């Protein structure tokens, strides 16, 4: 007996309604801007305002701090809806989660009170600064240092590939505090602290509306109250955060895949060659069938992983890794096929599928590469 999605995951009607609102905003306000955002590579402040005004940036937060309190599945359903039309704008919501989850999961009550309510309204946005030029998949090898000086910590170093660079109001920064034992600590650094500066901004293949680059910390001083969790336990803060937020990359991937599939289906209905619509050729029908099937399968795995996270199931982390790998590989494969369905028109910027193909690639790389996720999954099988 087939079950509907809401029976499987118990999605309350108000969450489905919220999702429909997000989809409508994505269709009406974001989709018409997507090509221009990609072309200009400018951060779309107007979209951020739209997402704030409709409480969408409140999705990662509990009600206690002004958020919607609707959990991981609802958050990622929203990420998916936005990514269907624009993966860069979906990243706004993903980073709202990524850059605040360390505080939500490990921060003091004072840090939560200071930062979460203004992020829940969308007034502030965060960044998560873990990666470095020489430390990507292996964050423990980072070079950024924090040294205790009286009551303060003094941070020095350069991070790399940091999303929201230059637009974030604060950065969650990971720094080595005990070099002998390679112990790392997590700090909140506000963007207006003396010694903080915005370094190189990358020119990217995809998600071009989301600024990525190098924040520089040059003798930046923060007080003890800006430490997240325990001194020396920063790697647990980072890994505990990523275990949940990589579901966002998976949701972004499902959205990209569905957006590309929907576009290719509509195109194949209209495009005529040899006197008939190209969706009458079995070669095209089978491509579309596979694209839809793979995307649907990816979504099921994503929703299951989100539901397990919301239930704090002990297998949630492994499922998050499986969802991240499967959804991102699906997005890549599906968008390549979408370009093929459109032929030459798929290869030019006038049509959105080449952008979707470029955007899909990042989902295999960030939030822990797919190779690293396969290691995590394999470890659970030993
Ligand atoms: C657009 C963008 C946005 C990003 N946003 C953020 C952000 O907001 N915050 C942040 O902290 N980081 C961010 N990142 C960084 C991202 O998480 C890293 O790029 C990623 O973790 C990989 O690190 P690396 O690029 O140094 O690659 P490397 O670690 O050098 O990996 C290179 C290749 O080797 C493989 N590899 C490495 N180690 C192993 C191993 N043990 N076994 C098998 N294969 C291995 C990798 O899978 C990869 O294929 C972002 C990156 C990009 C491109």
How does this structure look, described?
With 382 residues, this protein is of the alpha+beta class. The chain folds into 3 domains: 5-120, Butyryl-Coa Dehydrogenase, subunit A, domain 1, CATH 1.10.540.10; 126-232, Butyryl-CoA Dehydrogenase, subunit A, domain 2, CATH 2.40.110; 236-380, Butyryl-CoA Dehydrogenase, subunit A, domain 3 (Up-down Bundle), CATH 1.20.140. 52% of the residues lie in helices and 15% in strands. It contains 13 helices and 11 strands. It has helices spanning 5-9, 13-30, 34-40, 45-53, 71-85, 87-98, 101-106, 109-120, 234-270, 282-310, 316-342, 353-362, 370-380, and strands at residues 126-129, 145-149, 152-158, 162-163, 170-178, 183-190, 196-201, 212-223, 227-228, 272-273, 276-277. The strands form 3 sheets. Strands 2, 3, 4, 7 and 8 form a 5-stranded antiparallel sheet that branches. The longest helix is centred in the middle third of the chain and has 37 residues, at 234-270. It starts with a helix and ends with a helix. The structure holds flavin-adenine dinucleotide. Flavin-adenine dinucleotide (FAD) binds next to strand 1, strand 4 and helix 13.
């Amino acid at each position: 007996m087939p079950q509907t999605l809401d029976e499987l995951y118990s999605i309350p009607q108000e969450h489905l309604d919220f999702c429909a609102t997000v989809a409508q905003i994505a269709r009406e306000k974001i989709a018409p801007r997507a090509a221009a955002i990609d072309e200009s590579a400018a951060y779309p402040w107007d979209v951020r305002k739209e997402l704030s005004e409709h409480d969408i940036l409140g999705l990662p937060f509990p009600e206690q701090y002004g958020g919607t309190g609707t959990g991981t599945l609802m958050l990622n359903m929203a990420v998916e809806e936005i990514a269907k039309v624009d993966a860069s704008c979906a990243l706004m919501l993903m980073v709202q989660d990524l850059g605040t989850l360390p505080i939500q999961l490990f921060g003091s009550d004072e840090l939560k009170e200071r930062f979460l309510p203004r992020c829940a309204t969308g007034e502030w946005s965060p960044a998560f600064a873990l990666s470095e030029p020489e430390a990507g998949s292996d964050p423990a090898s980072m070079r950024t240092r924090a040294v205790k000086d009286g009551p303060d910590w003094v941070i020095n170093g350069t991070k790399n590939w940091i999303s929201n660079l230059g637009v974030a109001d604060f950065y969650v920064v990971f720094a080595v505090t005990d070099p002998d034992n390679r112990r790392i600590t997590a700090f909140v650094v506000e963007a207006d602290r003396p010694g903080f500066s915005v370094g190189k901004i990358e020119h990217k293949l995809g998600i071009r509306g989301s600024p990525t680059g190098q924040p520089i910390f040059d003798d930046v001083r923060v007080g003890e109250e800006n430490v997240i969790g325990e001194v020396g336990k920063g790697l647990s803060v980072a890994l505990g955060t990523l275990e949940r937020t990589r579901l966002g990359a998976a949701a972004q991937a499902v959205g990209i895949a569905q957006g590309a599939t929907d576009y290719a289906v509509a195109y194949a209905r209209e495009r005529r060659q040899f006197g008939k619509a190209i969706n009458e050729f079995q070669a095209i029908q089978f491509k579309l069938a596979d694209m839809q099937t793979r995307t649907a399968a990816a979504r099921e795995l994503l929703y299951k992983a989100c539901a397990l996270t919301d239930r704090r199931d002990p297998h949630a982390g492994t499922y998050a890794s499986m969802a991240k790998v499967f959804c991102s590989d699906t997005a890549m494969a599906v968008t390549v096929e979408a370009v093929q369905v459109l032929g030459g028109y798929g290869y030019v910027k006038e049509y959105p599928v080449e952008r979707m193909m470029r955007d899909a690639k990042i989902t295999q790389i960030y939030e822990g590469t797919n190779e690293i996720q396969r290691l995590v999954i394999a470890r659970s099988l030993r």
